[in-house]
Amino acid sequence: MEIKNLLFSVYDTLFDFISRNKLVVTVFIALTVCLYFYHRQQQEISSYRSLLNAPEVDDIIIFDTAKRSQHLYEPAFQVLQVTALSDDYIEVKAGAFTYRTMRNITRDIRVSMLMTDRYFKPQKQTLEKSKLLDLLDNETIMSVYRPVGIHVLGGVVRPRFKKPKPLYHGPNISAQNQDAIRAYHREEFEAARQGFADTAKSGNPWGQYNYATMLRDGEGGVKDIPAAIHWLQLSAKQGNHKAKAALDTLCKTHHCQTTNN
Question: Origin, by domain of life (predicted)?
């Protein structure tokens, strides 16, 4: 009974205080809510700035195309996805659709619309890295997201990892390389990457190629483009035609130094 009476006493005291100080309590609650949402917004902006300072392939950018229009402003949000990087620019593909609200963008991402063939326009655009933060500050860039695995906002935004073909023809077949391929098929990416690394260091061109592609795509560990270029160059020098093709593609968007190793 004592605890019950104490609770009733506290309730009566609190209710009496609120009744006598309605304005103060209302202002306090309003300020608390405003501060909460302001702090949350600042955290989001800080996150967006961090991502724009170090963009990566497959990042998703929500872009307000209406900001560049000379007409009366109405929101026209568009999804951009980073496809390639250089020292000064990012290359993006732009969605063929515009949206009035973020809710509709989230809906389309969650139903994997971004993975359909006709979602993005075929032509690519470039944005200067040095101007990305300015676009964020003037709210032309509304938000930025980095995929966790293959997902953003609950939807699939990039293809699943492709598995390599299990066997190669020619004199350079390596049992160690084949073991790593089998680990890759089991989706043991870290073990596969280590196996390909060991094979690459032994001088096997297919091991060098496989290790380079995992470095390039960030499979089984961190992404390392310079190291990927290095191992593709070594494999290509040994006549690996797949390594040559992959190297040509990579060197279009990244600086490739000649290796003497």
Answer: Bacteria
By the 8 A CB rule, do 237 and 208 touch?
Answer: no
Strands 155-156, 151-152: pairing is: antiparallel
Q: Report how many domains make up the chain.
A: 3
Q: Which residues of the chain have pLDDT under 70?
A: 1, 4-8, 10-12, 15, 24-25, 37-39, 68-73, 160-173, 258-261
Last residue of a domain, one of 129, 156, 183: 156
Residue in this structure with the two tokens 């290095």, named with its chain if needed: 230
Q: What is the pLDDT of residues 86-122, one digit of tens each?
A: 889 999 999 988 898 888 888 888 888 888 878 899 8
Residue 162 lies in a domain: no
Count how many Cα atoms sit within 13 Å of the Cα of residue 8 in the half-sphere of its side chain: 5
Q: 0.85 exceeded by the pTM? A: no
What is the extent of the structural domain holding 188? 175-251
